[in-house]
Amino acid sequence: LYRQVSVLQNQGREMMIVTSGAVAFGKQRLRHEILLSQSVRQALHSGQSQLKDMAIPVLEARACAAAGQSGLMALYEAMFTQYSICAAQVRVTNLDFHDEQKRRNLNGTLHELLRMNIVPIINTNDAVVPPPEPNSDLQGVNVISVKDNDSLAARLAVEMKTDLLIVLSDVEGLFDSPPGSDDAKLIDIFYPGDQQSVTFGTKSRVGMGGMEAKVKAALWALQGGTSVVIANGTHPKISGHVITDIVEGKKVGTFFSEVKPAGPTVEQQGEMARTGGRNLAALQPEQRAEIIYRLADLLTDQREEILLANKKDLEDAENKGRLALPLLKRLSLSTSKLNSLAIGLRQIAASSQDSVGRVIRRTRIAKALDLEQVTVPIGVLLVIFESRPDCLPQVAALAIATGNGLLLKGGKEAAHSNQILHQLTQEALSIHGVKDAVQLVNTREEVEDLCRLDKLIDLIIPRGSSQLVRNIQKAAKGIPVMGHSEGICHVYVDTDASVEKVTRIIRDSKCEYPAACNALETLLIHRDLLRTPLFDQIIDMLRVEQVKIHAGPKFASYLTFSPSEVKSLRTEYGDLECCIEVVDSVHEAIEHIHKYGSSHTDVIITENEKTAEFFLQHVDSACVFWNASTRFSDGYRFGLGAEVGISTSRIHARGPVGIEGLLTTKWLLRGDNHVVSDFSEHGSMKYLHESLPLPQRNTN
């Protein structure tokens, strides 16, 4: 607390603290004094047994406050002195708000302290306050309960016209029912009039107020023009610095707002996707396929509307100059792209007939006790994508095929395109009443805030720059992330490479779509090929295609005048640029790939089958090819219809992730009055563990 307040104060912000604690300090001090006094008296009157069992009297709160004020302030001064911050104590009572002159004096004192860069430490003067009147809190402008720091803070916030009031509690924020109770959910944004939707529990064990008092104070301050956040001050959840996190705009605790958003909150969208996904999974396979076929038709039928929306996005991006050329290419849609999308979606529909509920293992555990392992949806997917509106229908179709709920978060540069594509997706879903299964997040939700919705989201799939993926992997606490952070793909040209194949494969790998994650970034050439006609052909082709060449350290050492030496061998260019490096053997090529690659896609060009098989077996990447372009690393080209992305992780799914990668399994056990005790040493039953044939798959 002290460090955070000090940091913000030193940044030029004006900070005030409303605190309690004087009574607690004083109680501890008076108890110590009484015990010390009793021990002295007992020593003086050792013969009088009636004094030996003297109990500590009940301590009066006002006396405790009087004794504890100095200790409380000494603590604050000691802590703030460490950060070169001066603090000053201001004690208030009811009279300071009831009397107009006293109010002006208080206001002037606080403003003068703030002007001098001093942090006011404000608390009620509990040594002289009268007992509080029942139900008097916040009943009018000039009425305030002196026993309640929450209402005192609200009153001061309005009086001083503060920008923000942070009310710290021992829970994360305001819940719709008492925290710890079943189904209690944190309310991220609370609006006036929502009190009836909240069930308040008992008051806090510490202090005089409870959450109900905090809410009343927060609403009163909000009405007076001050923004309010209630958050956990004992176990901050985000970075450990709850105050600075809130000031920086991070999603912490419960924010009080007078303006309700036009649409549902992202939490509500997550719940809708969860329910919609379960309803989607409950449909017949033919019905899910019908939805995808309908979406494919809409992509071609509504082509003009889609391209018009995409044109708006392209014009906005060009006018603002925010996007690099590779990202502009990704943002652009065309008739051919839409036709390819429609073809891919129809492939997904055709291959999805038995995706959900497919039996992949059957075992007879014992007589009349059969076990099945079947495929089921993962749950709710969060897909975050940049500058790729064509990603939306692809991912939506895969989610529909697998019965998963879906939250989509696209970049604002593709807002118009994403909006029309989502509308068409919901239109297709509506034919079977499951439009809620796919949600597009349109609120200004930060990606890191979405990544903390661990109770709503089961898997995050980022599609975008390596920086985006790294940010998501860092922000996702408790939610698995599927994807790759970089696409550093290699092509190794072996000594036995075919002249006819080399330039074709390299040109396609680098130049067909240089912004793609499966484009060639580093070209490895066997040393024996240097200064040969084949090498000259490769260089000439790259120059004709206007590919900028960067020389690796070994390649540069062979040249008198070399291209610019590469800054890093671990670079994803995403443009018409590549690195050329020299290796002495296939073994060195594999070592280079393992050291500098990203386990995405790597290729060998050779006519030597033995060398090729060695490369295929020993390169540890998601996709390893022989005499084929890196650009084949794609869900559509693999026959998956589409992909949600390419995964370089080693758990669950690897490579282009299609239908299979969006499914998990569950176990179904069918018995007849079976209990484990029957299988004990002296039981009547024995385990069989017999493999049973699988039902025939639907291949239509």
TrEMBL record:
GO MF term set: ATP binding; glutamate 5-kinase activity; glutamate-5-semialdehyde dehydrogenase activity
Primary location class: mitochondrion
Organism: Oreotrochilus melanogaster
Ligase is among the record's keywords: no
Residue ranges annotated for the Aspartate/glutamate/uridylate kinase domain, each copy included: 3-232
Protein name: Delta-1-pyrroline-5-carboxylate synthase
Pfam families in UniProt: AA_kinase, Aldedh
Catalytic reactions of this protein: L-glutamate + ATP = L-glutamyl 5-phosphate + ADP; L-glutamate 5-semialdehyde + phosphate + NADP(+) = L-glutamyl 5-phosphate + NADPH + H(+)
Subcellular location(s) per record: Mitochondrion matrix
Example of a GO biological process term: L-proline biosynthetic process
EC numbers: 1.2.1.41, 2.7.2.11
Family: In the N-terminal section; belongs to the glutamate 5-kinase family. In the C-terminal section; belongs to the gamma-glutamyl phosphate reductase family.
Amino-acid biosynthesis recorded as keyword: yes
Assembly, per entry: Can form homodimers/multimers.
Keyword line: Amino-acid biosynthesis, ATP-binding, Kinase, Mitochondrion, Multifunctional enzyme, NADP, Nucleotide-binding, Oxidoreductase, Proline biosynthesis, Transferase
Pathway: Amino-acid biosynthesis; L-proline biosynthesis; L-glutamate 5-semialdehyde from L-glutamate: step 2/2; Amino-acid biosynthesis; L-proline biosynthesis; L-glutamate 5-semialdehyde from L-glutamate: step 1/2
Ranges of residues in domain Aldehyde dehydrogenase: 266-530
